Amino acid sequence: MTSTFHSIETARRSLFTQTAALNTTGHNIANANTEGYTRQRVNMKAAIPIEAYGLNNSTLPGQMGTGVEFTSIERIREMFLDDQYRGENSASGNWSIQSDTLDKLEAIVNEPSDTGIRTVLDNFWKSWSDLSKNPEDPTARKIVVQTAQSLTDAMNYMSTQLSNLDRDLSTNVDVKGKEIQSYLSSIADLNQSISKIEGMGDQANDLRDQRDLMTDKLSKIANITILETDAGYNISLGTQQLVQGATVTAAVDSAFLNTAYASGDLKAGEAYGMIFSSRTYVGDYRKQLDAMANTIANGEVQVTIPTGSTLPAGTTVLKDSEIINADGTKTSLPAGSAVPIPLTGDLKTTVKGLNGLHQLGYAMNGSSGRPFFTSSVAGEAITAANLKLNPEIAADPTLFATSLRTTTDSAGNVSVVKGNNTLALLFSNMKDNSTFTTADGLKSGTVGSYLSSMVGQLGIQSQEATRQTSNADYLVDQVNSRRQSVSGVSLDEEMSNMLVFQHAYSAAARFMTTYDELLDKLINSTGTVGR
User: Fold this and answer.
1) At what angle do helices 79-109 and 205-221 cross, to 10 degrees?
2) pTM of the model
């Protein structure tokens, strides 16, 4: 026979199970807007049925159902989508940093604009052209000095900005290292807590959500790999183990990340983007700017010095040169040969930039030209950071050379033709001289073409980084949308579930009330007939 109170137990189990379902629904609704929260579900199953109670095996058909019970409260989460999200998140972090760095580089270069370095260069060449009209004009000479100083200031300032950007990136790499270390410590602590709680048979759903959220944020910084074990998440960066269960196995800092970058373990994420941007973008443009500054001062350039010019005594040609005579014939001058005085034809030769050209002429006081540009740090090669106008010329504009002619009086005294503008014209023509060659011999062209190639390269790189960032962000959004469709809380769905569980609870309560009335009739009314 069946137990008298069997159905009371069935109703009790139903009430407890539906209560748990309602509580879980309320927890989902409360965390609908909580970052990283994963919706939870009560897993219900029919309780184990039993035979009807009796001394002998029951002859009643079937078994007696014992109601419902819930076996667990689980998170609705798909690990495959988590892995996809973290991979795309690392790519997004990398490209966002690269795009941001290139945007800053575009602001530093500031081309094309009316205030960029191209305008400063044009003003410098123009000042020489104006000076060639009247080489003895002190005002024109001062303008040349001012435009030259503006050019060096612009180069110095741009180099300083590049150095500052590089330093900011290096500092941020260290900050990201500390951020990674903080996440790793928290994940290790959560591994330990989750292991303890689940070791007692409970589900640590909310702690797992916290761990996954920190792992997601960590994936933005570096390309981590996650392996879930009984001890929790084991996290590695390439071949480098970072977390193993409750233990942080690596001390992550700037040096660690730079080593991982060099070895290829670090290949995505914000930390990678910072190191890559520093070494590739900032380093490359600083190198190009230095090459441009050195090219202006000392880069090899071909010039044609007109016939009749008188170069300083002892002047030799840097490379194989030739003199084009008036009758069209050519006279070869091997490298190191002395230059005839005066020139009997046009001399096609190579000089070391504006410095070498300037040293071929004469100043107003009759002295030979001196280097036009120097380094602010004695003994160092000229770079954008140390380029400056020769201090002697800056202090006395009469000291820069404009003349290539001398004259000899009847007494044999040689004097400079101060009004000669040959060298000033050669300087002004340097703007369109396409034979400037960098010190490493890799580039040849006008100074303006160096700048144009740098600006063009920067524009293309910035455009590509912006495109890649948009694509990476789109993929992150797509994967996250799919993940949220599985793990996210839908208020409409939760409200529907709440009604279902509410009605189930009410029905179970009504069932218990009904059975209570039956028992009341059985216990209090049965056996009283005839009293």
Assistant:
1) 30
2) 0.87
